[in-house]
Amino acid sequence: MIQVRNLGIDFGSEWALKNIDLDIPSNTTCAIIGPSGCGKTTLLCVLAGLLVPTAGQVLIDGQQLRGIRKNTGLILQNNGLLPWKTTWKNVELGLRTRQPDRKIVNEKVYSILKQMEISEFRNKYPAQLSGGQKQRTAIARTLVLEPDILLLDEASSALDAITREQLQNLILEIYKNKPTTLVLVTHSIEEAVFLGQKIVVMKKAQIKHIMSNPFFGDADIRTKPDYYNVCMEVRKRLCGDA
Amino acid sequence: MKVLRRTFNIRKIYGLAVVICLWEIIHFIVNSKIVPGPYETAKAFLGLLSGNLVLHILSSLFRVLSAISVSAAAGVPLGLLTGMSRKADSFISPVMYILYPIPKIAFLPVFMILFGLGNSSKIVLVTSIIIFQIMLSARDGVREIPQEFYYSARSLGLSMFQIYMHIVVPAVLPKLFSAMRISMGMCIAALFFSENFSTTFGIGYFIMNCWVMADYLHMFAGILALSLMGMLMFKVIDYAEKKLCPWLHLDS
Ligand SMILES: Nc1ncnc2c1ncn2[C@@H]1O[C@H](COP(=O)(O)OP(=O)(O)OP(=O)(O)O)[C@@H](O)[C@H]1O
Ligand SMILES: [Mg+2]
User: Fold this and answer.
1) CATH number of the domain bearing residue A174
2) Taking the complete model, does pTM exceed 0.90, yes or no?
3) How far is B8 from chain A (nearest CA, A)?
4) Is A128 in contact with B151 (Cβ distance < 8 A)?
């Protein structure tokens, strides 16, 4: 359970977040959507414990969040892969700091690479991977640590339409296989409706509207009219003044 | 076989051929003992290798390598510190900006008074030339590391030391190699100059001594030795970079 209470972040010149209140129950998904610069990444960084709130607080399972939390996984906008490490080395990076047993590390890395269908690229550097493969690598690097909270910042925004849908399907599949608390930031209305059980619409530094999405979880939702109705509603909330 | 092909590929042979032709042409036009031809020079060079020339080369190499080691040992940590701490930056950078463009070579007399006439003053001179280049590139290398690398690393649970090893060092390494390449030319020129004073060893001394004695053939052999030394150091830097930074050389 993530509880955000009256959260504020002040970067000096302006408030990047102000009066944010948000509850995300355990093992549910929450999509955050809003215009560029509204503070989505900032909010995610606060949830990850990387930024200290100027005001208010974040509670995780009832405990105030102070600093990095071991079981929170974060995947950033530009995936944060290290260009000097191969796919394999990138994926084992976090695991090796926690798991001293080389054999277990290798097994886990191997099985997550298989699951993400990137094991054939294990000796390639990020510069040699496609956008989709890079995102899978970044997801593998985080999933291999078996987090109970997964924070995703625009995982699919740099991808073409088909790869993007594949990645969205993959994320839904990962969630269904092993439900975790999933918070994802996106620019795309379709993605928010496809992956968000709860959809949070933000405007400059604030939450404008929170809605729940009854159709979440249906992998074939994209072909159904209900899906477009929800998309329409999100679009209205996003673009309207109300 | 592969090694052979790489060392003797067509571009290098072509480059070498053009340089030798130009040299031959100049030798022909000047038509005096001042510019001996490539063939005689090479022969003289090989002849000298069994004599003192090796000692001269070694003492020059020793000076350059000492200067590089001192510069790296002092310059890298200082540069990293400057890049990472705003406070250190405000102390170090203003001083660095004034010292960096000063022609250090003019300070050789001062260095000779302060550090003696032997190796030390020469090493100090060359160090004073490369250390700023190294500091600047280490500093800029750290500064260019994107925030997201730190964020990802911290959320993966890396410690400060691990962040150094996995992020800072690999990010800075390519910059250091570039810095060394850039400063290599200046560094060898300064060494040559410094070896004209109060020493009887070093390739610079050898060249100028041959000049004084009007032994132009051996002077040219010395110049050839100095050039080869420069080329060799360049190659070593290239090789080290290829080994240590494989992600920069992906298309091969
Ligand atoms: N480290 C920082 N220092 C100062 N201001 C910052 C910092 N990081 C972000 N900001 C500001 O905070 C605001 C929100 O930034 P944030 O990156 O959270 O936006 P975003 O919603 O993720 O945008 P995008 O969709 O383009 O990624 C912006 O106005 C930005 O300029
Ligand atoms: Mg963002």
Assistant:
1) 3.40.50.300
2) no
3) 29
4) no
